[in-house]
Amino acid sequence: MPRKNSIKAKICKEIANDLGAHPDEVLSIVESQFEHLKMHMEEGALTSVRLPYFGKFYVKPGRISQLNYGIIQRRKLQGNSGPSDTPDSGV
Q: At 18, is the secondary structure helix, strand, or coil?
C-alpha cells in the first residue's frame, strides 16, 4: 500500500479548487502518469525517461539483468510444478 503523501494531496487539492474538479480525480491523473511510466520501464520499452522539472528516471543495466534472471527462474519453476504434458499410460 502506498504511503500517504500530504504534500501531493495538498497540491492536488489546490489544483482541484483552481479547476473546479474533485481532488480524487486530480490525484488519479497525477498517479496515472507514474503508473504509466513504471509499466513501460518494467516492460523494457524505455531505458530512461526525463520529466521536465522533475528529473530523469532510468533502470541500471545490472538491475535489468537481475530482474530478467528472476523472471526466467520463476517461469522455470512454474513449468515444473504444473501438470505434465505426457498422456496417462492408463496403469
A: helix
- Per-residue cell: 46: 524505455
Domains in the chain: boundaries: 6-81
Alpha carbons 42 and 58: distance in angstroms, whole number: 11
Q: What is the C-alpha to C-alpha distance for residues 7 and 52, in angstroms, rounded to an integer?
A: 19
The DSSP annotation for 26-68 comes to HHHHHHHHHHHHHHHHHHTS-SEEEETTTEEEE--HHHHHHHH
pLDDT tens sequence across 11-26: 889 999 999 999 889 9
Alpha-carbon distances of 91 from 49, 84, 85, 86, 87, rounded to whole Å: 59, 16, 17, 14, 11
- Looking up cell 500500500 gives 1
Quote the pTM value.
Answer: 0.45
Residue whose entry in the numeric block shows the C-alpha cell 498517479: 31
C-alpha–C-alpha distance, residues 78 and 32, integer Å = 31
